[in-house]
Specification:
The chain is α/β, with parallel strands linked by helices. It folds into two domains: about 190 residues, NAD(P)-binding Rossmann-like Domain (Rossmann fold, 3-Layer(aba) Sandwich), CATH 3.40.50.720; about 70 residues, UDP-galactose 4-epimerase, domain 1 (Alpha-Beta Complex). The protein has eight helices and twelve strands. Strands 3-2-1-4-5-6-9 form a seven-stranded parallel β-sheet, with helices on both faces. Strands 10-8-12 form a three-stranded mixed β-sheet. Strand 4, helix 2 and strand 5 form a beta-alpha-beta unit. It is globular, with a radius of gyration of 19 Å. Pfam families: Epimerase.
Length: about 290
């Protein structure tokens, strides 16, 4: 594979992917603004994914298309519903159609582990996800995007990656683990359900980026959970942070509310993409 497109290269996983993209002859980055640390094999196309953008300025022939873009307003429903939909659904469809016309052999689309909702078990990719408004607007748009992407499996290899709580250097402080770091450091209480709180298997952005690269080589189309090697509770993560910053976490517990999980079964990821190697305990310093 020589020529690829990355939408969402300025985000967490995208920036880590860009740092690993030296193996490709041409990397075409779709971005609204400037991109820092742009490798020598990359060129930026100024495109706003929240608009009805034109793909005529993109290469006429492409090998792979990667869509990692996420609306910065993903939490702001209903006020930013149209912007969320434009990025997660409309822009994705435009790029799927472009990839087909440009002869792409592979298309990788980032979804979210949040599409499963809350559970007590590690979720497998083949679980049936019921159509329900209770899932939330953002994950609902991700499900729509997944369905659209798999409709193009007749024209190219399509990989949908359900990413679970990516973390790493350069992450926005509003995201889960940096936010926990700031709460512990500043002595703000952390609310948890049950004894230990939500359980997750967060994935380091470099492992997620390597999963994207591996997905550009799959034969056929599939959905993959992309998670980390360890399942951790919010209490465990906060206590880990407390040791690192020298502060004792403050918890507010909802003892009468059972703790649940957002954990992805990563057996398929380990078998067909890669085994995630990075543990939160070893990389927590990147977010301190």
């Amino acid at each position: 594979m020589k020529r690829i497109i990355i939408a969402g290269a300025t985000g967490l996983v995208g920036s880590h992917l860009l740092a690993l993209s030296g193996q490709y002859e041409e990397v075409h980055v779709l971005a609204r603004g400037d991109v820092v640390d742009l490798p020598g094999n990359a060129v930026v196309h100024k495109i706003d994914l929240t608009t009805e953008f034109d793909t005529s300025g993109l290469p006429g022939q492409i090998d792979g298309v990667i869509v990692l873009s996420q609306s910065p307003d993903f939490r702001d429903f209903p006020d930013k519903a149209l912007a969320i939909f434009d990025v997660n659904v409309r822009a994705l469809l435009i790029l799927l159609d472009y990839a087909r016309r440009a002869g792409a052999t592979h298309f990788v689309s980032a979804s979210s582990g949040g599409v499963y909702g809350l559970s007590n078990d590690a979720m497998r990719e083949d679980v049936v996800i019921p159509a329900s408004g209770s899932l939330g607007f953002y994950p609902s748009t991700k499900i729509i995007g997944e369905i659209l992407a798999h409709n193009y499996a007749a024209f190219m290899n399509v990989a949908v990656l359900r990413i679970f709580f990516a973390y790493g250097s350069g992450q926005k402080r509003s995201m889960l683990i940096p936010r926990l770091v700031d709460n512990v450091r500043e002595g703000r209480p952390i609310t948890i359900d049950g004894e230990d709180g939500l359980r997750i298997n967060p994935v380091h952005a470099t492992d997620a980026a390597k999963a994207v690269i591996a997905a550009l080589s799959i034969d056929g189309s599939a959905t993959f959970n992309v998670g980390g090697p360890d399942v951790l509770s919010l209490r465990e993560i906060a206590e880990m942070i407390g040791q690192a910053v020298g502060r004792t976490p403050v918890f507010e517990t909802n003892a009468d509310k059972p703790a649940v999980s957002v954990v992805g079964d990563i057996a398929r990821m380990k078998q067909e993409l890669l085994k995630p190697a990075r543990k939160l305990a070893d990389h927590l310093d990147e977010m301190l």
